[in-house]
Write a structure and sequence with these properties.
31 helices; single chain; about 575 residues; mainly alpha
Length: about 575
């Protein structure tokens, strides 16, 4: 079972802008309605009643209605307190357009107030109205206010390259007028990094470091820029030095571990995740990543201990059960593995894989009734899943050589779902293994009648006729239909070439086999390619193809048989 090392904590790069190293003022858009009382002007009794009801509505979860009515009240009363409160409600609801309108009204009533300009700058930026957003940012600075431009860059990641260029130009202009604004300088570096302009970003970063000194944030951004520049080793060195300089900084250590995973240095990556886990024992995502690394390093006992702990705190339950099942298999504790696999729920990405493994293990133990009962139980009420698990059960039975059981299972399931092409295809494979070519062809013909564009069925029937019968012209016609549907499928290209070879079209067969082998150097394609070359008199080329393929697949009986037939002269 091949594990995919998808460290949950490593799926996305944590950039320096996400680091909580310097206090950042949250945007108004991030704030929930504030609880402090607001001084209102002269209201009518009806308006005052609406204010009270809106406050109660916000507290009791009726935020959309309360927000809409607060917006209406702000427009009616033109009262600064109401405008400010309406803005807070609109922020909590995420109503960008309402916040923009309220911000403009706020500025009309209090033109020298900093807060509405901050509100408008963020909201306009998110709406793509960049020039207007930049004008409000400038106004904040002109009024002596402070706006954290590093928070602004959190809203520019989704902009197009052209839009971001406009923001970069605006930030550069502001830097000329406000050269001592530190967040402006840092935001410019982040914007250049977002635009994948690592060289100018690195120049700005060097200037920033010379002026303000080093920091964990600077080191993290430098490492990211080096990665963008393709300088992996330098990025690793920066992060390694960062750990020495800032040993308690989790983000530096995390990103160092992440890059180590990318380079395949799993042992050192595991060491770093171990330190991270010691720093924050209740950081369960780090523990999960550590368990995955232990699995990759075959440290099964360590992985089992960590995964069991995650189960104990109900964290990533499905994943923990799945990988504990994997551990059980590798420890040959099959019953334990089966029980863990069974507990992986339907909402997990690993659900089907877990059920496949559970059913396979039960059938390997010849617990046929248990396997079948479990497949029925876990798929109850879900016809699509019932079909899928029937094919899973069939595959497991075939793998263990229980062909009659497999065919009986498929006969029963097809009786319930007579038009299901997956079940029909599975039964055709079982019939083929049993040597019942008439039944195998019959099921494939049914599929083709039901789905004339089913390239899989056309290919399988065509190849079977070409390889195991003398109906080569019929095979060629089927495969020409298949290749018209899936022209780039190497398996179909190989099948087509084999049929062409069988009808004597050697040049066409050779061209297609060379094409298939270039993208899919499989031992079966190699055996076909060598045979065609041999029959065309190009025996040294044939021998080279076979020998190269045999080095890659020394256990291939198919290659050994074709080499034996031709080299010993049993085929001309």
């Amino acid at each position: 079972m091949a594990l995919s090392l998808t460290l949950a904590a490593c799926q996305t790069m944590i950039t320096p802008s996400e680091e909580i190293e310097e206090t950042q003022t949250p945007s108004v858009a991030q704030r929930a309605p504030a609880p402090e009382p607001i001084v209102y002007g002269n209201f009518t009794p009806d308006q005052l009643n609406r204010v009270i009801l809106n406050e109660l509505g916000g507290q009791r979860g009726y935020l959309p209605d309360a927000t809409q009515d607060y917006y209406s009240l702000a427009m009616e009363t033109q009262d600064l307190g109401v405008i400010r409160r309406a803005s807070q409600f609109a922020s909590a609801l995420g109503d960008t357009e309402a916040m923009i309108e309220l911000g403009r009204l706020w500025i009309d009533k209090a033109p020298n107030s900093v807060e509405p300009h901050i509100i408008l700058s963020y909201q306009l930026l998110e709406s793509g109205r960049l020039a207007e957003a930049m004008s409000h940012m400038r106004r904040v600075l002109e009024l002596g206010g402070n706006i954290d431009f590093t928070a602004v860059t959190g809203r520019t990641e989704t902009l197009s390259a052209t839009q971001r260029e406009g923001v970069i130009a605006g930030v550069r202009e502001l830097r000329v007028d406000y050269p001592d604004n530190r967040s402006l300088h840092y935001a410019l570096i982040q914007l250049l990094e977002q635009s994948e302009l690592p060289n100018p970003a690195m120049e700005e970063l060097t200037s920033f470091r010379n002026r303000y000194g080093n920091s964990a944030r600077v080191l993290l951004l430098e490492a990211q820029l080096l990665l963008q520049m393709g300088q992996l080793e330098k990025s690793i060195a920066v992060l390694a030095n960062g750990i020495d300089d800032y040993p308690d900084n989790r983000l530096i250590r995390f990103n160092y571990a992440r890059v180590l995973v990318q380079t395949g240095d799993l042992t050192n990556a595991r060491q770093q995740f171990g330190i991270l886990a010691e720093m924050s024992p209740d950081d369960y995502e780090t523990l999960y990543s550590m368990a995955l690394l232990d699995l990759e390093l075959n440290s099964l006992s360590n992985a089992k201990r960590t995964l069991t702990r995650l189960l104990g705190v109900n964290y990533r339950i499905n994943d923990a059960h799945f990988y504990l099942g994997y551990v059980g298999e590798n420890e040959r504790n099959f019953r334990e593995a089966i029980e863990h696999y069974k507990q992986v729920r339907l909402d997990s990405n690993n659900f089907v894989a877990a059920q496949r493994q559970a059913i396979r293990l039960m059938i390997e133990e010849e617990s046929f009734d248990e396997a079948h009962s479990w497949a029925i139980t876990v798929s109850e009420g879900n016809p699509r899943l019932q079909v899928l698990l029937a094919t899973v059960e069939t595959d497991a039975l075939m793998a263990e050589g229980h062909l009659e059981r497999a065919r009986n299972l498929l006969d029963q399931t097809i009786a319930r779902y007579p038009g299901d092409t997956d079940l029909l295809f599975a039964r055709s494979l079982v019939s083929e293994r049993l040597g019942d070519m008439v039944a195998a062809e019959a099921d494939l013909r049914i599929i083709i009648d039901l789905q004339p564009e089913n390239a899989r069925a056309l290919n399988h029937l065509g190849y079977t006729l070409a390889d195991r019968t003398d109906r080569h012209e019929e095979a060629l016609a089927l495969l020409e239909r298949a290749i018209a549907i899936s022209p780039d499928d190497p398996a179909i290209i190989d099948s087509l070439a084999w049929a062409q070879y069988k009808v004597g079209l050697y040049e066409e067969a050779l061209t297609n086999l060379q094409r298939a082998y270039a993208v899919f150097p499989d031992h079966e394609v190699a055996s076909h390619l060598g045979e065609v070359l041999w029959m065309m008199g190009r025996r040294s080329e044939a021998n080279k193809v076979w020998d190269d393929a045999l080095r890659e697949r020394p256990d291939s009986d198919l290659l050994k048989n074709v080499i034996e037939r031709f080299r010993n002269g049993t085929d001309s």
